[in-house]
Amino acid sequence: MKILSGQTAKPKVLGNERGVAMMMAMITMLLMTILAAELVYETTVYNNIVFRQVDQLRAKMLARSGLRLALLQVRAAKKAGTKAKGLLGDSAGSLVDQLWQTPLILPPPAIPGVSGMEAEGLTKFGKDLSLGGTIGINITGENSRLSLNQLVWNKPAEPAKPGSTGTQTGATNPSAQPPLATTPAASNPQQQTEQLKQSREAMIKVVDQLLQRKRETDEKFNQRAYGLTSQILIGNLVAWMDPQTEMDGEGRDKKDYY
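Above: the chain sequence. Below: its structure as tokens.
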């Protein structure tokens, strides 16, 4: 383009504006799509949070209801035992134990072999409860559990009965904390060491049976815990509980990881 002196070049203005409206519409649709996706995402997240909180609250209330039902079951068994003892004597104990040891499930599940009317009655009873979940109650006695304290601490000796002529060696207060096995407070440490050894051997036998039963029924557990033995498990527990024990069940110094 030839420019004369004293004149400035004017830019050429395009007069064709076709397509601008389409571009603005596409940008607007893109922004609306982003806003809609964000709104859907936030709504989904909030709904999940609310549903999770509702489930937690329902589970908490069901747990409280189960605890109260368990206490009611124990109290009923206690009252029944008091009345049955006067009628049946010492033989009433086993019958009363069946009251609080019987598992309780609410709503009651379908029982095979029940007639149609009875099954409908159980179903109606479960619906009338309106629990919103399932409550399972199973009460077990302390004597059926494993006490890990027997691996490290000796059982304190019972105090001498009033009126007895002899004295009991190593008698301690049952309410006091039992001494450590490695530093016994009694005058016969060899006897306490032997008692602890017997307790650990008995615990090893029980754990052996549990591991064997678990391996027979769970193949994944058998693969994960292939080299696990009861001696290793009990040794690790003793090393964790007893500060005087230096080596764990695998022969490693526990100072390396504790």
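Residues 28-137 form one domain.
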